[in-house]
Amino acid sequence: MSPKKTVRIKLDDKFYDLVTDESEEELIAVVNSIRNLFSKIRIQNPDASTDEILVLMLANCMLNNTKFEKEMAQMANRLRNLIDKFYKEKRERA
Q1: How far apart, in whole angstroms, are the C-alpha atoms of residue 4 and residue 33?
Q2: pLDDT confidence of 1, banded at 50, 70, 90?
């Protein structure tokens, strides 16, 4: 496990410290993603506060996470069904 590191990110006039033990590559990707999405939302909503933008970003992340969890569960069920079908057919042939 990598040692924890702190990265400071500036959004508008506020600074946020992110603490992680992820790789440098992952950290750079996440920070760039946060900055890019924040900038896009800022351009579309110039009057929104920093906190409002962050809450919107968090809500979108949670929505995406929920969708991915559902999708992964469906894929796992399909895979389980295929494996069950495979072994059932294999037993029937034996």
Answers
A1: 20
A2: low
**pTM exceeds 0.85 for this model:** no
Show the tokens assigned to 20.
């992680």
In angstroms, rounded to a whole number, what is the distance separating the alpha carbons of residues 2 and 86? 41
Higher pLDDT, 80 or 24: 80
Q: Which amino acid is at 45?
A: N
Residue type, 31: V
Q: In degrees, to the nearest 5, what angle opens at C-alpha 10 toward C-alphas 6 and 15?
A: 70
How far apart are the C-alpha atoms of 23 and 10, rounded to whole Å?
20
Distance, in Å, from the CA atom of 60 to the CA atom of 47, rounded to the nearest integer, reads: 19
SS3 16: strand
Beta carbons of 40 and 53 less than 8 angstroms apart: no
Determine the number of helices (DSSP H) and then strands (DSSP E) in the chain. 2, 2
